[in-house]
User: What shape does this take?
Amino acid sequence: MRRLSRRAVLHTKGTDVSQPQSVIIPLPNPAALYQVLRVGNRAANGRAVARIAAGLPALTAEVGAIDPGAELVSAVGIGAELWDAISPNKRPRLLRPFKAISAGGRSAPATGGDLFFHIVSRRGDLNFELAMRLRRQLGAMVEVMDEVHGFAYLDSRDLTGFIDGTENPHNAEDRSAAALIGREDPSFAGGSYVLTQRYVHDLDKWRALSDREQESIIGRRKADSEELAEDVKPPTAHIARVVIVENGEELQIVRNSAPYGTTSEMGLFFAAYCKTPEIPERMLSRMIGASGDGLHDRLMEFTCAVTGASFFVPSLDTLRELG
Ligand code: HEM
Assistant: This one.
């Protein structure tokens, strides 16, 4: 996969912005580790946790030096309640906890979380090493709510067998424009919001469908991800529900998800970075069938979100200040 420089100074809408954390802009490598943590007694532990979080870029460089070819990158996201415990007077404009969405028996639950660690490289063992060092530092101040070790499946497919990422922004400029806060919240420029959800697939139910039926649920061909023609693609197809056009432009997010699981329970850990939490939430609301047009995403009949949370991922400068 083409790699993107993560050192170049990024420009958003003509302004220099702080550097984002290193996971956001490069195209993802095959091994991913996601961790959602709760901080016990935020008022007492918040500052110490913030110092450890602020040390993540240095710790990533230290572990990454074991094998620079593995291209270890990371990010830490901070939930609204933890943010308010550590920096109540200076907060990102749109930071608030993710609210559950439900309709017609389908749901996107809100399970919360104070910290989100996202680690990616070519080597699962280096991801694990970094996560272990963090965990040792955090000790009894945190409780792990969810930990998922993701992998690239075949040629970048979701476990449904469909290529995932075809329409994801691919170059640094487009990824920055979609993911990074710019002038709209200048104190937090270079930061991002991330929505995380762990999905569990019902693959027995999915495999009972023909390829043709699966394709009409995704809206793309299974073999090569070619989009179905408008007159064939149902309005309930996944890509029909998540494409939202406003003022002639498609709303964009940067998906950085990965398949995960065991042979008993498997699915997708979904992570979407965006300069506003509202865009992925609007997509999700159209998927669940809560957007008021009477339609839902048929993919939701074959997979179920079991977690959901929203975090702010500060720029490197803001992260340093927090520490
Ligand atoms: C289990 C959950 C999900 C699965 C298996 C899944 C799978 C896919 C697949 C196979 C594609 C087509 C290829 C591509 O362009 O990447 C796609 C596209 C997309 N998905 Fe999902 N997705 C899931 C959840 C979500 C969620 C929760 C959102 C938003 C909140 C989302 C947003 C998008 C977007 C924006 C596109 C690109 C649409 C386009 O421009 O054509 N997906 N997804």
Summary: Residues 158, 160, 162-168, 199, 218, 220, 225, 238-239, 242-243, 253, 268, 270, 272, 280, 283-284, 287, 303 surround protoporphyrin IX containing FE (CB under 6 Å). The two ends are 34 Å apart (CA to CA). Residues 11-322 form one domain. The chain has one domain: 11-322.
